[in-house]
Amino acid sequence: MHSARAVVSWWCGLLLIGAASQASAQIAPRLTGEAVIARLDTAKQDLVARAGVTHDDRLTAVSARLGEMADALRKSLGDKASQPADIMDDGRRIAVLRADAAVQRTQSFLDAAPSCPGSDAKALTDALATTVDQLAKASGSSKAAPVINSVETIDHRPLFALHPGNAPVALALVGTNLADPQCADPQITATDDKGKLLDNQPVITGALPTRIELKLPDGAGNKSVALVFHVVPKRKGFLMGCSAQPEATTALQVTSPLRVSVSYDLTTTCSSGERSPVSGSLPDITAYGASSSRQVDAACPNPARYAISAKVTFGDGNSASVGPVEQTAVADITMGLPAGFTLSWSPSTRTVFVRSAANVCKGVY
User: Fold this and answer.
1) Is 362 helix (H, G, I), strand (E, B) or coil?
2) Which of 205, 197, 140, 198 lies closest to 171, judged by CA?
3) pTM for this prediction
4) Exposed end of the chain (fewer CB within 10 Å): N or C?
5) Where does the signal sequence lie (predicted)?
């Protein structure tokens, strides 16, 4: 009996230890200035590396801006950098939270950007640059000052840019102190990066302290423009009414319309051994999920082999070449192009096809 009780007690002890370990593993460490400064330095280095791949000077400028934010935090926090942000005075705490928001936005950008072609990639960079600049310039603090960490789709995907159009768009702002349930909904306006009010203003559909859901009833519009959201929430004070808090800002970018051009070089090797090259281009692709095709005249009555290469050019002027790929005259040829595009040659119909996958850019809606 005693032995059985000992075994049960031993198993219960193991279960309790396991439960305690699992619970402790779920508790995130408190945010400190030191941690945010370290993350700013890492994000700065990651952007420099990305700029080296894309040769985009704007990423170098954003990286420098993150470095300035890190230096400003070091100076303002001093020997309090190791303290949890929660116990700092209002000014220092909000500076830490804004810097952390810049880090989070940069990390989301670095995750999304490699999948984006042409004008979409440019739009992501523009949105990040505007957001980091707004966070670096932000002033004003209070006990409940709002900070926007991210812009998301309604299904929680990080969002940096919107495709042009007039269909309604739904999205969400995620952050801290964005609304107070005891007060009216926050005031939210949309401007360009110069502060000019846009014709298309957002409408709030739901508000929580950590999330505001909104829609653009008339879509993103048809101009490539920065879309800066300004959020001014109210906060209920003890024995007082609701008072306006400092403004929080974040930015998206409306992209240029999609335009992808594809040219090809097709070489037919005839049964006689003669080689007959021909070049051409396909109608531009202007939407994700679309396709384009071109029929090619026969080069000889009895072809033996075909070889095809292709060049894809995006709206921003960037291009990439693929091939040549060679097959017998009875075999189809299919090859992948950048950004989810594929090119196929069908010898039976003598047709070149280009197909676009659905939107492959994770940061664009």
Assistant:
1) coil
2) 205
3) 0.82
4) N
5) 1-25
